[in-house]
Specification:
3 helices; homodimer; 35% helix; alpha+beta; Gyrase A, domain 2
Chain lengths: 113, 113
Amino acid sequence: MEKLLEGKCEACRADASLVSAEERKILMPQIPGWDVIEVDGIEQLTCSYAFKDYLSGLDFLKKVAHLAEEEDHHPEIVLEWGKVTVSWWSHKIKGLHKNDFIAAAKTDALFSE
Amino acid sequence: MEKLLEGKCEACRADASLVSAEERKILMPQIPGWDVIEVDGIEQLTCSYAFKDYLSGLDFLKKVAHLAEEEDHHPEIVLEWGKVTVSWWSHKIKGLHKNDFIAAAKTDALFSE
């Protein structure tokens, strides 16, 4: 099976395809902590991570933000005391592209470091 | 008039008072960009700031997070591309304490730096 962690986000064009239901069945098991939620009619991949304090969460947020710059794909990140929530989706296609699954897997890897 | 920027967040106890309607009338004009919103029945002060890119937003977020540590009062901060949204409220009293207005004023000051 193709490994998400070995992928790299590609430039996402407005006419790129949303991931299909069949692709999802293959991709979701590779990011077991993530949920698909719908916000304003747009599907997003979201995951919350727990931390012992605020600054530990901030350190993780910074790593995810730098990953975002490397991939040129930018998530919403919410910092709260002891918790960071990351949500990936593809603005241009208003939903989930394979990029989002790659980015989610890489976010998990940053947390495991 | 007492200046919010000269204030310092005090330890907020569970029996501390929510800001009264009269106090609000004095405090809100000192933080003109901020709105009061209600989330799950709890009032919050919230403000969004625009940035030219993701990393500029991240820099601001880091400043606000360090302010939070100094004041020992921690907001929710949402990082998106070109935008940072900061929300202050007092968890222990499930609403707005004067601390939140002080923190909002200091957040504005960090943005103006």
